[in-house]
Amino acid sequence: MTVQRPLDVLHNSLESPVIVGLKGGREYRGTLKGYDMHINIVLQNADELKDGKPVRRLGLVIIRGDNVVFISP
Amino acid sequence: MTVQRPLDVLHNSLESPVIVGLKGGREYRGTLKGYDMHINIVLQNADELKDGKPVRRLGLVIIRGDNVVFISP
Amino acid sequence: MTVQRPLDVLHNSLESPVIVGLKGGREYRGTLKGYDMHINIVLQNADELKDGKPVRRLGLVIIRGDNVVFISP
Amino acid sequence: MTVQRPLDVLHNSLESPVIVGLKGGREYRGTLKGYDMHINIVLQNADELKDGKPVRRLGLVIIRGDNVVFISP
Amino acid sequence: MTVQRPLDVLHNSLESPVIVGLKGGREYRGTLKGYDMHINIVLQNADELKDGKPVRRLGLVIIRGDNVVFISP
Amino acid sequence: MTVQRPLDVLHNSLESPVIVGLKGGREYRGTLKGYDMHINIVLQNADELKDGKPVRRLGLVIIRGDNVVFISP
Amino acid sequence: MTVQRPLDVLHNSLESPVIVGLKGGREYRGTLKGYDMHINIVLQNADELKDGKPVRRLGLVIIRGDNVVFISP
Questions:
Q1: Smallest Cα–Cα separation from A32: which of E3, B44, B46?
Q2: Contact G59/F70 with Cβ under 8 angstroms?
Q3: Which chain B residue has its CA at the smallest distance from C60's CA?
Q4: In sequence order, which residues have a C-beta less than 8 Å from that of residue C27 and are 6 or more positions away?
Q5: What tens digit of pLDDT does each residue of F30-71 get?
Q6: Rounded Cα–Cα distance for residues B32 and B19 (Å)
Q7: What percent of chain D has pLDDT over 70?
Q8: Contact (CB<8Å) B10/C62
Q9: Do chains B and C touch by CB distance (3+ pairs < 8 Å)?
C-alpha cells in the first residue's frame, strides 16, 4: 500500500486552483504557486471567501501554515 | 504486552474510510490516502460533516495535523 | 524516592480501560491499545462521553496527544 | 543566591499532596507520584475540584504538561 | 513545475506595500522592510486597519510571526 | 549599548517579591525562588490576585512558563 | 535590497520608548532595556495601557515573547 505524503499531494496541486481553510473559519481560494515544509502557502489571484462567496480580492498572498486547517485542490 | 503505535494504526487504515475530528468540532469523512509524522492527513472523496451528516463535498483534501483531535477508522 | 514516569504509567495501563479527557471538555472511554512519546493515544472500543455517559460509539480511535488533558486508568 | 529549579521543587514534592491548576480553570488534587521534563504529571488518589471542592474521583491520573498552569505542593 | 517558496515571495516584496493579517482579525498596512524565517515582519509607515481603514498610526513596527495569518503584497 | 537579557533580569529578582501575570488575566504575587530557561517559575508565599487583591493563598507554587505573560519585580 | 532583520530593528530600539502589543489586546509602554531571540522583552518604567492610556504602573517588567503581537519603537 503506498502512502500519499501530504506534501507530495500539495506539490501535485501546484498551478491548480485550491481552497485553503483557516482556523476560525476564513477560507481563501486561489492558484497554488508555492508552499514549504511548514505548509506556509503562496496563492495567486486569491480571494477571501465567506460562505463560499468571494468577499475580498487579495491577489498574491502568503498564508502562514500555522493557521491552515485544510487545503483542497 | 505489545504497544500499537498510533502511526502504525494510521498506516493500517490506508485506503479505508475514516472520520477525522478537528478542533472546534468540524469533522471530515473520506478515504485515508496518506499521512506523515505530524499527522497531516490526506483524504480522498472527503465530505465535511455536521452532526454526522455531509454538508459539503471537498473531494481530495489535505488536513494539517495541528488541527486533528481524533481519527477513527 | 522513585519517580513514576508518566509514559511508564501509560505503559502499565495497556489493555486496560481508560478515560481520556480532551481540551474543551470532550472525553473518550476505551481500552488503551497504544501510545507514543507525544501522548498520541490508540483506544479500542472507544465511546465519546458527555457528562460521563456514552453519546457516540467510535470503536478504534487515534487521539492526537496535543489535545489530551488527562488520561485516567 | 541559589536558584530553585522548578523541576527540583517538583521532585521534592513527590509523595506529597499537590494541587494542579489547568488552563480553563480545572484543578486536580492528589498525591504527586511522578513527572517528566515536559511537566507531564502523575497523581494518585486524584480528585477533580470545582471551587475548591471535589466533584469527581479520578484515582490515578496522568495530566499532560501542556495544560498545566500551576502546581502547588 | 517551479515552487515559489513563501520566504522568496516575501523577499520579492521588500520595499513594497503589504497588508499583514493577524489572528483575531487585526490588520496592518505598511512598507515591508524585513522579515526572518519565523515570518517575524518589519513594517515601516505602518497603520493598523479596521474594516480596511486606518485607525492608528504605528510607524515602524515589528510583528511577531506567530500571530501572522497572511501577508499580501 | 548593553542588552539586559530577560533571564538575567529574572535572576536579579531572585528572593524579591514579583507579580506574575498569566494568560486569561490571573496574577500571582510571591517571592521569586527559582526559574528555568522556559520561564517556568517558582514562587514562595504566593497569593493568587484578583483586581490586585489576594483571593487565595497558594504558598509554594510552580508556574509553567507557557502561561506566563509578564513578570514584574 | 537589504533586509532589516526583526531582531536588528529591536536592537536599534534599545533605550528607546516602545509600545508592546500582546495577544488579547493588552499593551505596555516603556523603555526597551533588553530582549532575546524568543522576543522575550525587558521594559523599564513600563505602564499597562488601555485604549492608549496608562491604567497601571509596572515599572520593570519581563514580557514573555510568546504573547507579543507587535513592538513599535
A1: E3
A2: no
A3: B72
A4: C19, C20, C21, C48, C49, C50, C52
A5: 999 999 999 999 999 999 998 889 999 999 999 999 999 999
A6: 9
A7: 99
A8: yes
A9: yes
Q: What is the pLDDT of residue D51?
A: 84
Q: How many CA atoms lie within 13 A of D60 on its CB side?
A: 14
- G39 → closest Cβ in E26, E34, E64: E64
Could you tell me if G37 lies within 8 Å of chain E, comparing CB atoms? no
Secondary structure element (H or E) that encloses residue E54, with its range: strand E53-63
All residues at 6 or more sequence positions from A35 whose CB lies less than 8 Å from its CB, including other chains: A7, A10, A11, A41, A42, E3, E6
Residue type, D5: R
DSSP C6: H
Q: How far apart are CA E48 and CA E25, in angstroms?
A: 11
Chain G CB contacts of F7 under 8 Å are 36, 40
First to last CA, chain D: 23
Q: How far apart are CA G2 and CA G9, in angstroms?
A: 13
Distance to chain F for D70, nearest Cα, Å:
4
Chain B: give the shortest CA distance to residue A58, in Å: 23
Residue whose C-alpha cell reads 504605528 in the numeric block: E58
In the CATH hierarchy, which top-level class contains the domain B6-72? mainly beta
In CATH, E6-67 is 2.30.30.100: yes
**pTM for the whole structure:** 0.92
Which of B64, B69, B71 is most worth mutating to test chain A (most A CB atoms within 10 A of its CB)?
B64
**Buried b or exposed e, range E32-54, using 16+ CB within 10 angstroms:** bbbbbebbbbbbbebbbbeeeee
CA dihedral in degrees (G40, G46, G47, G48; nearest 10)? Answer: 10
β-pair type (G53-63, F68-72): antiparallel
Distance of CA B11 to the CA centre of its chain: 12
The CA distance from G9 to the nearest CA of chain F, in Å, is 13
pLDDT beneath 50, residues of chain C: none
All structural domains of chain F with their residue ranges = 6-72
C25–B contact, CB cutoff 8 A: no
Residues of E in contact with G1 (CB under 8 A): 11, 14-15
Question: Shortest CA distance to C6 belongs to which of D15, D38, B5, D40?
Answer: D40
Q: Do G70 and E60 touch (CB under 8 A)?
A: no
Closest chain D residue to C52, measured at CA: D56
* Per-residue pLDDT at A1: 67
Closest chain C residue to B69, measured at CA: C64
- CA nearest to G28, candidates G2, G62, G5, G66: G62
E12-66 per-position pLDDT tens digit: 999 999 999 999 889 999 999 999 999 999 999 999 998 889 999 999 999 999 9
